[in-house]
Amino acid sequence: MNNQKYYKINSLIAKRWSPRIFNPNKQVTNQQILSICEAARWAPSCSNQQPYKYIIWNKSSNSVDFNRAFDTLDIGNQNWVKNCPILLVALADTKFDDGNFNNWAEYDTGSASENICLQATSLGLFAHQMAGFDVNKLKISFDIPPSYKPMAMIAIGYKSDDLSLVDEKYIKMELSERKRKPLQDNFFDSKWKNPIYK
Ligand SMILES: Cc1cc2nc3c(=O)[nH]c(=O)nc-3n(C[C@H](O)[C@H](O)[C@H](O)COP(=O)(O)O)c2cc1C
């Protein structure tokens, strides 16, 4: 803990975080996956366009495609994602249904992905989002149409306390204190850079 002041938040939001040590032996059920998808479905979006698509890879039911998705991850992510049973990609459709550019597609996709993370948390699971993957390789491997922008991969599974499951570097990350900028850095009262309620 640093000396920053903390304000009370909803316990689900407080419980969500991005671990790197996952249990390779504990499966996620189809019901849990569908409940996670349903949570994303109820996210708000500009003009209710719901401009996102998710591809979900389940290592236990389709290891071939799971591994093709896994191969697009950076080595640093592969090192710990290897223990995750489920992998997703969040894709933002940059075009509205009428063909015009959707400037809010990425915003809305992020919103849906946060619902995924929170729903996973509510089910006792953990979701860890990643930008560290090869976007072009993924688009080619899975025939993603040009207007869809891969925003993040998301690894989902149960957490494990077994530190031997990952390299030392990731143990350090796992055990390090979670940090945030002070509230006043990002939240302003009425005027640009006027810190909220000092
Ligand atoms: C868009 C996005 C991309 C991220 N990329 C990676 C990544 O490639 N590898 C990784 O280990 N974590 C990644 N993270 C996780 C962040 O590092 C993590 O959310 C941040 O440090 C805050 O920690 P917390 O989620 O535990 O609160 C990413 C998170 C987001 C939202």
Q: Using the coordinates above, name the CATH class.
A: Alpha Beta
Low-confidence regions? none
Give every kind of bound small molecule, once each. Answer: flavin mononucleotide
Total beta-strand segments? 4
Present the secondary structure layout.
Layout: H1 11-15, H2 30-41, E1 52-58, H3 63-70, H4 75-81, E2 86-93, H5 105-122, E3 126-130, H6 135-141, E4 148-157, H7 168-175, H8 183-186
Antiparallel strand pairs: 1-2, 2-4, 3-4
Helix pairs in contact: 2-5
Brief digest:
The chain has 198 residues and is of the alpha+beta class. It has helices at 11-15, 30-41, 63-70, 75-81, 105-122, 135-141, 168-175, 183-186; strands spanning 52-58, 86-93, 126-130, 148-157. The chain has one domain (16-166): NADH Oxidase, CATH 3.40.109.10.
Summarize the structure in words.
- With 198 residues, this protein is an alpha+beta fold.
- It has a single domain (16-166), classed as NADH Oxidase.
- 35% of the residues lie in helices and 15% in strands.
- It has helices at 11-15, 30-41, 63-70, 75-81, 105-122, 135-141, 168-175, 183-186; strands spanning 52-58, 86-93, 126-130, 148-157.
- The chain has a four-stranded antiparallel β-sheet with strand order 1-2-4-3, with helices on both faces.
- The radius of gyration is 18 Å and the shape is globular.
- It binds flavin mononucleotide (FMN).
- Flavin mononucleotide is lined by residues 17-18, 77, 129-132, 152, 178.
List key phrases describing it.
single chain, alpha+beta, NADH Oxidase, four-stranded antiparallel beta sheet, 8 helices, 4 strands, globular, binds flavin mononucleotide
